[in-house]
Design goal:
Layout lengths: L2 H25 L1 H4 L5 H8 L5 H18 L5 H30 L9 H10 L3 H22 L4 H15 L2 H14 L4 H23 L7
Helix pairs in contact: 1-5, 3-9, 4-5, 5-7, 7-9, 7-10, 8-9
Protein name: DUF8198 domain-containing protein
Pfam families: DUF8198
InterPro entries: DUF8198, FFLEE_fam
Length: 216
Protein backbone atom coordinates (compact mmCIF):
# COMPACT_ATOMS: atom_id res chain seq x y z
CA UNK A 1 0.00 0.00 0.00
CA UNK A 2 1.39 3.42 -0.98
CA UNK A 3 1.76 6.23 1.54
CA UNK A 4 -1.12 8.08 -0.11
CA UNK A 5 -3.40 5.04 0.00
CA UNK A 6 -2.43 4.41 3.62
CA UNK A 7 -3.24 7.98 4.59
CA UNK A 8 -6.59 7.82 2.81
CA UNK A 9 -7.50 4.57 4.57
CA UNK A 10 -6.53 6.06 7.93
CA UNK A 11 -8.67 9.12 7.21
CA UNK A 12 -11.56 6.86 6.20
CA UNK A 13 -11.25 4.86 9.43
CA UNK A 14 -11.30 8.09 11.43
CA UNK A 15 -14.45 9.16 9.59
CA UNK A 16 -16.11 5.79 10.24
CA UNK A 17 -15.41 6.22 13.96
CA UNK A 18 -16.67 9.82 13.95
CA UNK A 19 -19.90 8.86 12.17
CA UNK A 20 -20.49 5.93 14.51
CA UNK A 21 -19.98 8.03 17.64
CA UNK A 22 -22.26 10.70 16.18
CA UNK A 23 -24.98 8.06 15.73
CA UNK A 24 -24.59 6.99 19.35
CA UNK A 25 -24.91 10.62 20.46
CA UNK A 26 -28.18 10.92 18.54
CA UNK A 27 -29.61 7.56 19.64
CA UNK A 28 -28.75 8.06 23.31
CA UNK A 29 -28.80 11.85 23.53
CA UNK A 30 -30.57 11.97 26.90
CA UNK A 31 -27.82 9.89 28.54
CA UNK A 32 -25.10 12.15 27.13
CA UNK A 33 -26.77 15.05 28.95
CA UNK A 34 -27.63 13.34 32.24
CA UNK A 35 -24.90 14.07 34.77
CA UNK A 36 -24.72 10.61 36.34
CA UNK A 37 -24.55 8.77 33.00
CA UNK A 38 -22.17 11.03 31.05
CA UNK A 39 -18.99 9.14 32.12
CA UNK A 40 -20.62 5.80 31.32
CA UNK A 41 -21.81 6.65 27.82
CA UNK A 42 -18.59 8.50 27.01
CA UNK A 43 -16.56 5.44 28.01
CA UNK A 44 -18.65 2.76 26.28
CA UNK A 45 -19.68 4.81 23.24
CA UNK A 46 -16.68 7.07 22.66
CA UNK A 47 -13.50 5.92 24.35
CA UNK A 48 -13.62 2.33 23.08
CA UNK A 49 -14.28 3.66 19.58
CA UNK A 50 -11.46 6.20 19.72
CA UNK A 51 -9.13 5.13 16.92
CA UNK A 52 -5.82 6.30 18.36
CA UNK A 53 -6.59 5.09 21.86
CA UNK A 54 -7.77 1.72 20.60
CA UNK A 55 -4.59 1.06 18.61
CA UNK A 56 -2.39 1.88 21.60
CA UNK A 57 -4.52 -0.20 23.95
CA UNK A 58 -4.54 -3.24 21.65
CA UNK A 59 -0.78 -3.15 21.26
CA UNK A 60 -0.20 -2.97 25.01
CA UNK A 61 -2.87 -5.52 25.80
CA UNK A 62 -1.61 -8.19 23.43
CA UNK A 63 1.99 -7.52 24.45
CA UNK A 64 1.40 -7.93 28.18
CA UNK A 65 -1.67 -10.09 28.71
CA UNK A 66 -0.14 -13.40 27.64
CA UNK A 67 2.66 -12.90 30.17
CA UNK A 68 0.42 -12.51 33.19
CA UNK A 69 -2.88 -14.26 32.50
CA UNK A 70 -1.78 -17.30 34.50
CA UNK A 71 -1.55 -15.10 37.61
CA UNK A 72 -5.10 -13.74 37.28
CA UNK A 73 -8.36 -15.03 38.71
CA UNK A 74 -10.57 -16.70 36.13
CA UNK A 75 -13.16 -13.91 36.30
CA UNK A 76 -10.46 -11.27 35.80
CA UNK A 77 -9.01 -13.13 32.81
CA UNK A 78 -12.47 -13.44 31.30
CA UNK A 79 -13.16 -9.72 31.68
CA UNK A 80 -9.85 -8.81 30.04
CA UNK A 81 -10.41 -11.32 27.23
CA UNK A 82 -13.82 -9.83 26.47
CA UNK A 83 -12.29 -6.35 26.33
CA UNK A 84 -9.60 -7.59 23.94
CA UNK A 85 -12.16 -9.40 21.77
CA UNK A 86 -14.34 -6.29 21.59
CA UNK A 87 -11.39 -4.10 20.62
CA UNK A 88 -10.21 -6.59 17.99
CA UNK A 89 -13.69 -6.99 16.52
CA UNK A 90 -14.28 -3.24 16.46
CA UNK A 91 -10.92 -2.69 14.78
CA UNK A 92 -11.73 -5.32 12.14
CA UNK A 93 -15.23 -4.00 11.40
CA UNK A 94 -14.07 -0.37 11.19
CA UNK A 95 -11.18 -1.24 8.86
CA UNK A 96 -13.41 -3.23 6.51
CA UNK A 97 -15.98 -0.44 6.45
CA UNK A 98 -13.24 2.14 5.80
CA UNK A 99 -11.88 0.09 2.88
CA UNK A 100 -15.36 -0.07 1.39
CA UNK A 101 -15.60 3.69 1.76
CA UNK A 102 -12.29 4.26 -0.04
CA UNK A 103 -13.12 1.75 -2.79
CA UNK A 104 -16.42 3.51 -3.43
CA UNK A 105 -14.58 6.74 -4.23
CA UNK A 106 -15.04 8.58 -0.93
CA UNK A 107 -14.08 12.25 -1.38
CA UNK A 108 -12.87 12.80 2.19
CA UNK A 109 -15.96 14.71 3.29
CA UNK A 110 -18.02 13.99 6.37
CA UNK A 111 -20.51 11.18 5.94
CA UNK A 112 -24.16 11.94 6.45
CA UNK A 113 -26.14 9.48 8.55
CA UNK A 114 -27.71 8.08 5.38
CA UNK A 115 -24.30 7.57 3.75
CA UNK A 116 -22.90 5.86 6.83
CA UNK A 117 -25.91 3.54 7.05
CA UNK A 118 -25.59 2.70 3.36
CA UNK A 119 -21.96 1.59 3.68
CA UNK A 120 -22.66 -0.19 6.98
CA UNK A 121 -25.45 -2.15 5.30
CA UNK A 122 -23.23 -3.21 2.40
CA UNK A 123 -20.89 -5.19 4.65
CA UNK A 124 -23.15 -8.18 5.40
CA UNK A 125 -21.49 -8.74 8.78
CA UNK A 126 -24.67 -9.54 10.67
CA UNK A 127 -23.14 -12.19 12.97
CA UNK A 128 -20.11 -10.04 13.73
CA UNK A 129 -22.22 -6.98 14.57
CA UNK A 130 -24.51 -9.03 16.80
CA UNK A 131 -21.46 -10.47 18.57
CA UNK A 132 -20.07 -6.95 18.99
CA UNK A 133 -23.34 -5.86 20.59
CA UNK A 134 -23.42 -8.97 22.78
CA UNK A 135 -19.97 -8.14 24.20
CA UNK A 136 -20.82 -4.46 24.72
CA UNK A 137 -23.94 -5.43 26.68
CA UNK A 138 -22.06 -8.06 28.63
CA UNK A 139 -19.32 -5.57 29.54
CA UNK A 140 -21.88 -2.97 30.58
CA UNK A 141 -23.55 -5.39 32.97
CA UNK A 142 -20.34 -6.91 34.36
CA UNK A 143 -18.68 -3.57 35.08
CA UNK A 144 -21.86 -2.11 36.56
CA UNK A 145 -22.22 -5.07 38.91
CA UNK A 146 -18.52 -4.90 39.79
CA UNK A 147 -18.70 -1.19 40.57
CA UNK A 148 -21.65 -1.69 42.90
CA UNK A 149 -20.19 -4.48 45.01
CA UNK A 150 -19.15 -2.84 48.31
CA UNK A 151 -15.92 -4.84 48.49
CA UNK A 152 -14.74 -3.54 45.11
CA UNK A 153 -13.90 -0.11 46.53
CA UNK A 154 -11.41 -1.74 48.91
CA UNK A 155 -9.80 -3.85 46.18
CA UNK A 156 -9.10 -1.15 43.59
CA UNK A 157 -5.95 0.32 45.18
CA UNK A 158 -4.15 -2.99 45.84
CA UNK A 159 -5.20 -4.26 42.40
CA UNK A 160 -3.78 -1.12 40.79
CA UNK A 161 -0.52 -1.61 42.68
CA UNK A 162 -0.24 -5.26 41.59
CA UNK A 163 -0.98 -4.31 37.98
CA UNK A 164 1.88 -1.83 38.13
CA UNK A 165 4.27 -4.46 39.52
CA UNK A 166 3.26 -6.94 36.81
CA UNK A 167 3.58 -4.37 34.03
CA UNK A 168 -0.08 -4.52 33.02
CA UNK A 169 -1.19 -1.07 34.11
CA UNK A 170 -2.71 -0.36 30.67
CA UNK A 171 -4.98 -3.38 30.99
CA UNK A 172 -6.01 -2.53 34.53
CA UNK A 173 -6.62 1.10 33.59
CA UNK A 174 -9.29 0.03 31.09
CA UNK A 175 -11.03 -2.04 33.75
CA UNK A 176 -10.76 0.78 36.31
CA UNK A 177 -12.13 3.35 33.84
CA UNK A 178 -15.16 1.15 33.16
CA UNK A 179 -15.59 0.70 36.93
CA UNK A 180 -15.47 4.45 37.59
CA UNK A 181 -17.74 5.22 34.63
CA UNK A 182 -20.58 3.06 35.95
CA UNK A 183 -20.13 3.81 39.66
CA UNK A 184 -22.35 6.96 39.84
CA UNK A 185 -25.28 5.39 37.95
CA UNK A 186 -28.38 4.29 39.89
CA UNK A 187 -29.83 0.85 39.19
CA UNK A 188 -33.08 2.21 37.73
CA UNK A 189 -31.30 4.43 35.23
CA UNK A 190 -28.77 1.74 34.37
CA UNK A 191 -31.48 -0.85 33.71
CA UNK A 192 -33.40 1.59 31.49
CA UNK A 193 -30.21 2.44 29.61
CA UNK A 194 -29.24 -1.22 29.18
CA UNK A 195 -32.69 -2.13 27.83
CA UNK A 196 -32.70 0.83 25.45
CA UNK A 197 -29.25 -0.01 24.06
CA UNK A 198 -30.19 -3.66 23.60
CA UNK A 199 -33.43 -2.74 21.82
CA UNK A 200 -32.19 0.11 19.62
CA UNK A 201 -28.91 -1.50 18.56
CA UNK A 202 -30.61 -4.81 17.76
CA UNK A 203 -33.20 -2.97 15.66
CA UNK A 204 -30.45 -0.99 13.91
CA UNK A 205 -28.47 -4.12 13.01
CA UNK A 206 -31.58 -5.98 11.87
CA UNK A 207 -32.77 -3.06 9.74
CA UNK A 208 -29.46 -2.81 7.85
CA UNK A 209 -28.07 -6.35 7.95
CA UNK A 210 -30.95 -8.69 8.81
CA UNK A 211 -33.00 -10.80 6.41
CA UNK A 212 -35.76 -8.19 6.28
CA UNK A 213 -33.43 -5.21 5.90
CA UNK A 214 -34.49 -2.24 3.85
CA UNK A 215 -32.95 -2.19 0.40
CA UNK A 216 -31.05 0.97 -0.46
Amino acid sequence: MSDLAGKKLKAARAEVVRAQVERFRVFYASYFHLEETIPMVEYFFEKIYNLEGREVWLHLAMDTYQKVKGMMKESSRENIEYLIELNNLTEEMDTILAKNLVDSGWDGKRLSREEYDFHYGQMDHYKERMRQLEIVLRNLKVFYELAHKPISAYLIKPARFMASLLGVSALFQSVEEAYNATLPVSSNIFNSFYEEVEKRETEYIHSLLGENRKEA
